[in-house]
């Protein structure tokens, strides 16, 4: 019989953390993680798939039942991302302006930064947190440059809590929504991390 985890009403990244802990206790078999919002569904699914598990999602009355299979029936995890043009750099961007001081100057510098970044190997990951999430929305002055980097293989991830705080979730134009656990994994994983 599959073990169930109730993640209803939990804020990011707790559903992912609870699922991770339950999977660590499970040598092989099936786990059902129950969440009640789309962000949690996406984050838990992505985490489980990255861990090499197979995931099936069923929706019932606005809740999502994620059946996660670990072990013999699971799919091998893709450990190494396809190289393409991407380098090992990870950029953590915490603001929609570059540096502190005059905001208009900071916006000009951020445009210059992304234009210059297009001349280098694309970074492995671009993580956007706090007001940095404004860079990946439709009205951003650098959304075109970030989209080009994504097309070259950069993973662009924006903090879901930050997008909700600024009421910008529906405006996201490039990349995908992430959670703090995945951000932390990128910060502590392989590759050089640069914070702006």
UniProtKB/TrEMBL annotation:
Protein's name according to its UniProt entry: tRNA 2-thiouridine synthesizing protein A
PROSITE patterns: UPF0033 (PS01148)
PANTHER family per record: SULFUR CARRIER PROTEIN YEDF-RELATED
InterPro entries documented for this protein: DsrEFH-like, Se_metab_YedF, TusA-like, TusA-like_sf
SUPFAM superfamilies tied to this protein: DsrEFH-like, SirA-like
Name of a matching Pfam family: TusA
Organism name: Desulforamulus aeronauticus DSM 10349
Organism placement in taxonomy: Bacteria, Bacillati, Bacillota, Clostridia, Eubacteriales
Domain named UPF0033: residues: 5-29
